[in-house]
Known about the structure:
The complex is a heterodimer. By secondary structure, chain A is α+β, with helices and mostly antiparallel strands. Helix content of chain A is 29%, strand content 16%. The radius of gyration of chain A is 20 Å and the shape is globular. Chain A starts with 27 loop residues before the first helix and ends with a strand. Chain B is globular.
Amino acid sequence: MDGIHDMGGMHGFGKVEPEPNEPVFHAAWEGHCFALNRAMGYTGIWTIDQTRAGIEALPPDVYLSSSYYKKWALRLENLVVERGLADADEIKAGHALRPGKALKRKLSAADVPNSLTRGSFARPARAPARFAPGDRVRTKNIHPATHTRLPRYARGRTGVVEALRGCHVFPDTAALGKGEDPQWLYTVLFEGCELWGDSAEPTLKVSIEAFEPYLEPA
Amino acid sequence: MAHDHDDDRHEHGSELPEMQLRVRALETVLAEKGYIDPAAIDVIIEAYETKVGPHNGARVVAKAWSDPAFKRALLEDASKAVVALGLMNRIGDHLIAVENTPKLHNMIVCTLCSCYPWEVLGLPPVWYKAAPYRSRAVNDPRGVLADFGVKLPAETGIRVWDSTAETRFIVLPMRPSGTEGWSEEKLASLVTRDSMIGTGLPKNPKEVG
Lengths: 218, 209
């Protein structure tokens, strides 16, 4: 999706403003919002790619004007309603008005320590990897209206495969709820001038993590 | 409801009371529907506020500075090496350590969202998730470093890693000179969060004595 979330290389956002001694959460609701997202993710009702697509689906003005955890809260409300887990009138009332659905699992306090670890996204390969480290590749000029992890600034660009990272769940398919569709994942390295032209910082190199369907031989 | 949201405060301005009420409403609905256990919510918050954080990454870096065999293992397969170190209960797959040298400075970003190595660095700071860093890291990394008060030699190459998949990156900064014979614990006190993202350098040894 060519959305506002795809920010690499955009101008006009100003300086980076580090906050000294920044707290983990700036308000108690941020911690609750974060933890609710984690606990609902644990139920298995949606995948990480579907949650990313949920953030990307926020209108651009809302995306830009909302704090990070506000985006997470809006996304969670939307997903809960879209999946029929609760209705908008219940969220508005702040109470369940109808019984809940049965979900696969529920996170207990005792299970939290083990749930903090990320799962593995590696999956058995269905075919040999098409590219090897050292190969020159070109990223495809694709513009899907749905979730993708190929950023705009790196589309239609030529780079070199630096590493093969294994075969992973393919976000573009998984975000659509169409299964994991595992694909080979590569680190692809670009010269700064390939991405930004003559104005590029001369010593700059940028890599992306690129799934095989994003790539063609160059 | 068992949770105390009363300490909500800080600079989110007028947005805050609305969000406090909104998140509380959502939590109540999800709990009453039977999807979440509020006790688990509290344990998650506590874990990320107290247990998971950049102190873990600092221990990994200090170990790599002290133990060449560990450093090799870390650069070969960081997930495996960090698990073997036994600092953390468990660690997810796909962690990759990238080494700074006098010729090369590494910087980590996620231009598309906020991907970050939570288990070794904790939750990302606001700036990491915000538009200025995500937009500029890939085309103006020296400008970004200047925002952090860091100036690298012009001949040092800059390599930016955009975290566009489930691989996660941690920078292995250069060990400061003047730290010969330091214990791992003392070395770890030099390792800042930003030095492991690539937007900062380790502290000057004189700062920690």
